[in-house]
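Two quick folds needed for the group meeting slides. Do the first one here.
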Amino acid sequence: MSSFKIPVSLCKRIQSILTRFWWDSSPDKRKIAWVAWSGMAKHTYLGGLGFKKIEDYNDSLMGKLSWHIFCNPNSLLAQVLKGKYFPDEPFLDSVEKSGSSHGWSSILAGKEVLKKGLGYIIGNGETIKVWSDHCLSTSEPVVPIGPPTFDN
């Protein structure tokens, strides 16, 4: 799960096995699940049991792999992927091309999870391109509206 995006059908099967483990007394005897999985998967501070939703967990693991590529662009993995899939653009601007491997498609799914939580620490402001980089927003990444006055 930490290397590839697994299909939704497999996620549902794994979740079903987990449910059966908690509710059934033996493999051949099925019992009623007294609490829905959605209730069990809520965070404990929301009154649930804190179980993970398998599909969301897989997405977060793919986001972790994307974070590794983003933060360590000189690692062997990042250099190989850059040479093959995004040689002329930054990792966050890379897109899926025809003939991409399942591994790369999985990393791109993780990149989308990563982009939802990325932001900037402004510091001295020299490295931020105000007119092209995504800025912080409470709802979605936005860029300023209007013509830039200089190449920033």
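Then this one, please, same format:
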Amino acid sequence: MEEDQKKKKKKTRTASFFNVVFSGFALLSDGYQSGIISFINLVLGKIYGDTIFNDTVSSRLSYSMFVGCVVGQLGFGLFVDRIGRKAGLVATTVLVILGAALSAASSGLTPDGLLWMMVIARGVLGVGVGGEYPCSSVSAGESADEVSPGNRGKLFVMVTNFVIDLGYVISAIIPVILLAIFTENNLEPVWRVSLGLGIIPPLSVLYFRLRMADSKQYRENAMKKKVPYWLIIKRYWRKLLAVSFTWFVYDFISYPNGVFSSVIINQVAAGQPMIITSAWNILLYSFYLPGCITGAYLVDKIGRRKTLTLGLISLGIVGMVIGGAFEPLSKNCFPLFVILYGVFLALAEMGPGNTMGLIAMESFPVAVRGTGYGIAAAMGKVGATVGTVAFAPMKEQLGVRGPFLVGSGIAIFTGIVAWFAFQDIGTGGLEQEDAEFREYLQDNGYDISSMGLDNGSSSNQTKITTVHQVSKDADEV
């Protein structure tokens, strides 16, 4: 009997490991699609010129995905709590595939028509990508806790933010390869193939997501009906406000600098061929990875709060240096400018990039984790949208140095606020929060006997995928 229990526990742990991997991998699309639009902005500007593809159209194309993300994060945050983790993962995967395909196939009778179709397609893509945040991250976080509670932070970061950052790096490499193949004189296949390749990550995990099971924590603590939202708001509004504000600030600073990186480098390195500009972008985006890996080590070593604060204040200081010395850096020492720019982005990933999703996942109980995470992530994307829209006016008023100076000042202030706003959640913290949440509900007259899938109808029963099935599927693919 004891031997059977050990085997069952090992199978469940291995199945949870596969859940972690396949939950997070499709987030590669978020990084890729967010990063590739920087290059697409540059290419479409070359093809159509400033008259058609002006700053307004460029910003519209960039923030359409962010607007879709807000819808997806809010909608799928509720969906993943009420319907299920697996159902949300499958639905978002299909939307990402559809949005990427439509973006690559954009067409119209006029250039304006083509660009409007691309804007709408990027919006659809954004709904799927936005939905990936609560679906993938929540599922990955819960499964990581089942695999190794002591390394939950590290595992979570590596299958979520690191995957997103890897998508950014790939989005910088692909354009250089395509430009070498098609040359700068034939740019249409370059941008179409660049967008179309975003289909590969979600398509590669769709089959496995269809075979996945909901996490053990969700099966035991799901709340599918008569959700006491007022009690939940009373208990968690402070945590929600803190994580939403900090995520808003991070995305306000980080996303515009990622989205317009090619434009910034192209302006600083004026007169260089497009393939050279794109190659510099590879170096720039590559800084994301060491920043992310460093943060993955720190979140469990020194804690979430210290990592977040260190990252925000450090990136603020580096951003001030870039903004203050922009003229001599850009004119006399371009390689040093790119390196400092890369360090700026790396510190953003080391601190808030790694910790915001992790803190949001850990701040709420299983029953409303997707909803809380979705709201916080949506506020982040609102920040990204505001930052993207504000980028052009700041650049016009203050030059390229403007976004660095403004964003850095806000980052330092937010780092100080974060130090007092957050507390670390250690090993066993997720289960403890669920237990305290149940006790809180019971003390306030809520019937907790209906919580968990086992207490629902037979249609709510979850079939656990065995290790043998998952391993066999992996070998077949």
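Slide caption for protein two: Confidence is low (pLDDT under 50) at residues 456-477.
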